[in-house]
Structure formats: structure tokens, C-alpha cells
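Lecture 7 notes: from sequence to structure.

We start with a single chain of 207 residues. Read the sequence below before looking at the structure.
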Amino acid sequence: MIFPALYNGPLNYYARLVRQKELILEQFDSYSKQSFRNRCMIMGPNGVISLSIPVIRKRGEKTLLRDIRIDYDSNWNKIHWHSLVASYASSPFFEYLADELHPFYEKSFDFLIDLNQDLVEHTLGFLGLNIKVNCSDAFTPIKSGDDPRHFIHPKKDQTVADPGFLSKEYHQVFSDRLGFQSNLSILDLIFNEGPDALAYLQACLKT
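Now the structure, written as C-alpha cells:
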């Protein structure tokens, strides 16, 4: 199966990735705005925060994901890192993971696909998985509604679009005030659950 290349993707995305023996990320799809390809959702002290990476693309023209460049004029990487620190510094496992994750927000990646692929590989490694990650050689058409490139999207109600994903509660920072928020970025899970994150993901899909 071909998977979209997402930026710190949501839990229903990673629940599927951890079941793969080899992973192929789609890089020949047409880039669309307001997708998880350049944004992720985290839990902040005042509620859910959307972290979005600014990109460079020609207006009015379709651009393949592989050709999308990251725009560093706004220092988005520093903003995202500061948001992660503000949101998760008090979480149980942030201090153990911060030194590994911080370099991704210091290095300048030219292309969005390169950042996303590297983050996927790093995250799978933290989960204890040695899954080979490659990018597609050509576009594979989407033939059904259960293709993850189709239904994993921030604008879709995932309880409807992805009924196979069983959201389960775990401890979240600020949940005592704001309640539990489901299907956030994989970072929310690993900062809060650490080495138990893999078992959580493995239990989240209907068999």
C-alpha cells in the first residue's frame, strides 16, 4: 500500500504504518493546501494547536509533492519547536526525546518530502521498528475510499472517514482541564506514553 508523506502525522496514520514491513511514501501526488502533508495537530495549554509549515509553490498551477519547497522566511521551525516545548515540556517523556527531535527544527530542508520522510523514519525508529522507508517512483492512482491518501485529512471527520480506527484515551498534558483530544500528532502520543506508544498504536485498528 502507498501512504501519503505526512508531517508528524496523526495516530490513525501511524497505526497503519507500524503494521508495514516496508513503507512507500507517495511523492508524485499533486500537493493540496490544508492537508497533513505540511501540518500537524498538537495539544497546547489552551487547546488543540495546528502547526503549519509554509511552502513555496506556483499559484494556480498543480505542483507535485516532491517539488514543494519549504519557506524559511517566517522561521516556522523555531515557532514549531517553541510550541512543542510550551506544550510538552511537562510531559513524562519530552526530556528523553527532545535532543533527538530538536535537530529536525535546526536543519534547513529544501523539500517538504525530505523532512517528512526523515521524520517518519525517526519516529518508527523510536517506536522500536526497523521499517525500510522509500518514496514512490511514479503515481499510483487512488482506486478506493479506504486508501489512506484519501481519507486521512484534517478537514474530514475521522470518526466517519476512518471507522476502522479505534480511538482510545491515554494521559495527555492538560487533559485535566481540557479533556482528552483524540487522533492528534504522533508526537502527542510518544511524549505522553513513551515506550508504550507502539502497543497503543497496535491496538487501535480493527482487525
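The chain has a mean pLDDT of 94. Keep this in mind for problem set 3.
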